[in-house]
Structure formats: structure tokens, C-alpha cells
Amino acid sequence: MAIEYLGLSQINGSLIAIEGMKDAAYDEVVEIVVDGKQKKLGRIVACYEDKAMIQVFEGSENMSLTNTHTRLTGHPMELALSPDILGRTFDGIGRPIDGLGPVNAEIKRDVNGLPLNPVTREYPRNYIRTGISAIDGLTTLIRGQKLPIFSGNGMPHDKLAAQIVKQASLGDNSDEKFAIVFAAMGVKYDVAEFFRKTFEESGVSEHVTMFVNLANDPVVERLITPRMALTAAEYLAFEQHMHILVILTDMTSFAEALREVSSSKGEIPSRKGYPGYLYSELATIYERAGIVRGINGSVTQIPILTMPNDDITHPIPDLTGYITEGQIVLDRSLFGNNIYPPISVLPSLSRLMKDGIGEGYTRADHQSVANQLFSCYAKVGDARNLASVIGEDELSDLDKKYLEFGKAFEGHFVGQGDQENRSIIDTLEIGWDLLRMLPREELDRIDTKILDVYYDKKDADTDSDKKQA
Q: Regarding the domain delimited by 4-75, which CATH topology (the fold level of the hierarchy) does it fall under?
């Protein structure tokens, strides 16, 4: 028989405290009834002997020390799961908000998840195609990887996230099941509507599961939303044998919610006011990506975070970089030059890229082309710096070629339309077209055998066309 506790001993913002509780457990969900009619959910965030501190998801409005009834549920926050969650939209704590009624659940899972046994993890292989050249060609996303996007306020990361959802696939020749779990934290209503309409109009809604926490929703919900999304992803990947791409936006909202809740609990702050356990909290989310040996399924993550003041050394991107396997960085100067997506190539990298590209995965020349494009674009920066000192007219012919290459690279390789879905072959061919702008002797990162096949290919194709004519 469930015991109800009458009244509270303390109220502090969204935190309440009750004394005299028996058998309360950390992370346990509690049901709260205010004035006998208004129902709220809470989660135990601290226990001291017979005293429990509870986070109330809907906030403590209308609550007083005498008008509440609190009941322990005996379980942590859980999510109802079945294959029917695909195509559905939920709020930040897993309640359906699409008007289609509750999910006909097969099982329920603890949203905090269980850590994957390192021994059973399989090394990530194979790539996920996003249709975006700067990602597929130079910072390739590998199944089972966690690859964040570092953005800034006002940058088009929402547009980029929507494009990835619309275009992502396992490649043209794959017949494996693929789906996307999308979680938005602290977004404005118009942004949430943008995502919903974009997915609906592009016809991808049926294989997307959405979790949406709006800016006016309780801050505490933001701490649960990414865990809801990853619980759904793990179920679809490891029990329904699907390859799942999880997009989390915006992790900065998650971290700021963590800071706000930590402050209200009276905890001692660390760097820039964030709690000292920010690293471990981020790790419990990011490390839920991976592949389990013997199971045909995977969880791949693209967390998106906005860097305060575009500062990549801020605690949120800094700690994220320690945990994840690379990063994709958006650049404000490229954005100012009307280049979309404004991906800054040089600070971006994918640490697992080398193991999921090349012959048998993409194309044999992929790694060589990527290395050469990185090298040549780095020299573009040197040429631009020199031009700013002595003037463009005084540059050598080679430096002028590098300036032309840089402009074409940013405009045609990095830059592409938000409806443009490029195959990996299209991306590599654009790369070769750019490399042909430079003398062959400058291409020192590519094996001569690959150069013989691809560098003169366009001229050979032109000669062949002339003979046929």
C-alpha cells in the first residue's frame, strides 16, 4: 500500500523538501497533488536520512507547506516504448503532444540508461551520409560516433540540423533500417514549428521521433529530455535492430539548466558558475552512443551546442571536446559572407573518419583528397595574410592560384544549397575539380598512382568525347 506524505518542510523555487520519508531513493519519481486537484511530477535529487529533496517538473507555483499530498512511485523516470514511437512527437519528459494519444507500450525503460560494457563495444565502421560535402568529404560521420557541432548565437545550426535530418542515410546501396531521434531543449515555439513543418513537408516525419522542450517549459525538464531521446534511440537500435542518428540541440540549454538547478540546491559552483560535475553529466549523455557486438544496430550522436560569445574554450565546448570524437565548427566570418553551411574546415575534424572511408566504404581516393584539400586550404590562409600586407597584385602567380582556389573551395565545396543533397561521389568529384586549379606538383599529399587516375581524368574524358564526335 502506497504511503502519502502530507505537507512540505521547505520550498525553494522548483525544489521542495519533505521530512519523515521512508525508503525514498535517489532519482525516484514522485507524484504530487496540490489542493486535491492539480497533479505534478517530481524527481528526488537528494536524500539525507529521512529528508528528501524533490525537483518539481512543473514548478512549485500554487504549492504551500500545507496543501500538498506526495506519493512515492517506487521507480525512476521511465519512458514507454514500442516501434510505434517512430513518427511521434513528445514533450521533454516523454508525454505525447501530437494529438495521437498515448503510445501502446511494449515495455518501459529507465531513462537514465545503463552503461555499455566496454568489452561488448564494437569499433565504429561505415559512414552515415549527410549529403553535405564539408561533412561527408572532410569530417565524415561514422556509425556509432559522437560528433558535435559547435555553433554560435544567430548562426544557422537549426537549418543545418534540419537538413541533416532530411538527407541523412546509410548510403545508396544499404537496405538496413535507419531512423532519427531528434531532441530540442529550450527552443522557442517558432523554432520547434520550423523543425516540425520541415520534417513534415520533406516527407521524413515517419522515421523521426521528436522530443521537444520549449523555452517556456520547466527548466528541470531540460535535464531529462536528452535522456528520453537516448532511451528511445537505444530501444530502436539494440532491440529493434535499427541504425539510429540522434540529434541533440541545444546542449548549451541543457548545461545552463544544470547550472540553474545546481545553484538552487546551494551547491558550490565551479568554472563560470557551472557545477563541478558538468563533465560527468555530459559524459553520461555522450557516452550512450556506440555499437554492441552481435547486435545489428547502432546509436550515433550529433550534439549541437552554441558557444557563448563564440568562445571555443568555454566550459561547455571545452568539456564536450574531451568526451567526443571530433567536432564540426561553424564560422561567423563565412556566415557573414553568405556561405551556407558556414563550416570552418581547419578546426573541424572527425577522429574516426579514417576507419570508415576509403575502398569498400566510400571510394579509394577519399582520404587522399581530404588530406590534400586540408593542406591546400591551410596555404590559402597564408596567401590571404600575405596579400593583406603587400597587396594582392604583388603576390606570386602560385599565391594568386591559391587565392582563387580558396574562393572556389568556400563557394562550391563548403557552400551548397539547403535543399542540395550530394552523394559522396559528387563531393569527391567537386574536390578533384578544385585540386585541378593548382599545379600537379603542389598536390604532395596524394599518391602518384591516384593522381594518374583522377587528376588528368577530366582532360582524358574531354579528349574521348572529341574523338567520339
A: Elongation Factor Tu (Ef-tu); domain 3 (2.40.30)
